[in-house]
Amino acid sequence: MDSFGAAGDLGVAPSADEEFDRQLHNLLDKGYPALADRSAAEFTALVEPLRDLLDGETTSDDGVPFLIVVARSLVATVDAVGLFDVLGKRGFTEMADEIEGYQPIDGVDVPAALAYLLVDVTTGKDTLNVRPNDALPSITDIGRTPLTVDEGVALVTHCPDVFAARNAFQALGSRNASKRIPSFWMSKGAPRLGWCWAGNPHTWLGAASAAARRGPDAA
User: Fold this and answer.
1) Which of 54, 83, 123, 146 could form a disulfide with 172 if both were Cys (CB 3.0 to 4.6 A apart)?
2) Within its chain, how far is the Cα of 92 from the centroid?
3) Any idea where the domains of the chain sit in the sequence?
4) What sign for the dihedral angle of Cα 210, 146, 114, 12?
5) E strand or H helix at 150, and its extent?
């Protein structure tokens, strides 16, 4: 399969350090330090140690080799969604009042860190038109992990052409008490964080997953 470089070019594989630099600079350019109430130097110092957790990732069979994920405890999810930039359009969500209630499901172990790496990320092309309730075990049975809301935010933030190059996707790793699944897609020409029912299949929504998470405590 073609690899989906995080820079957005199919078949192009920058080095791990080059891709790390690109993602870090992307966060700086988008104004993440101010949202995190830190200077650019302080924000860089917080993220930079994650570079040591790279293990030569430059390509993925069908996805993104790694993502720098910023926790919602550092930058609020709603603020991060508003910084999406896809085809010149900013992101939006109508879930502002409820999004903080979505927490990692059992079995999804997120590093206790303000930022961490997500490795070998795909948008779940093989789960298109599969109910989220059925897609989840198909992910975990092969040793992968579903994305959380924060991780979905990171994917759109760093790979704004993900919807065109691959497909819209769902973050099965975050749930609240309802039967809603956080989902990311283009709506009215702009990137959106919304939701779909856990029991409903969609031909255009895949279940995003990753191979692993790496936090500072893994060093």
Assistant:
1) 146
2) 16
3) 16-218
4) positive
5) helix 149-158
Task: Please give the DSSP secondary-structure letter assigned to residue 136.
Answer: H
Instruction: List the one residue out of 218, 219, 215 whose CA is nearest residue 111.
Output: 215
Structure-token match 């570079």, residue found: 51
Position 120 pLDDT exceeds 70: yes
CA-based max dimension of the chain: 45
How far CA 18 is from CA of 24, 97, 101, in Å, comes to 10, 37, 35
- The residues facing 209 across adjacent strands are 122, 146
Distance CA 8, CA 31 (A): 21
pLDDT digits (tens, 9 = 90+) for 89-107: 999 999 999 999 999 999 9
Strand order in the sheet with 115-121: 64-70, 115-121, 212-214
Query: pLDDT tens across 143-165, in order?
Result: 999 999 999 999 999 999 999 88
Residue 169 CB neighbour total at 10 angstroms: 29
Under a CB-based contact definition with an 8 Å cutoff, are residues 131 and 138 in contact? Answer: no
Q: What is the pTM of this model?
A: 0.92
Contact 4, 14 (CB under 8 A): no
List of residues 6+ apart from 62 with CB closer than 8 A = 1, 2, 3, 4, 122, 125
CB 50 within 8 A of CB 214: yes
Mean pLDDT, rounded, for 167-186: 97
Q: From the CB of residue 88, how many other CB atoms can be counted at a distance below 10 Å?
A: 8
Closest of 116, 124, 162, 167 to residue 5, by C-alpha = 162
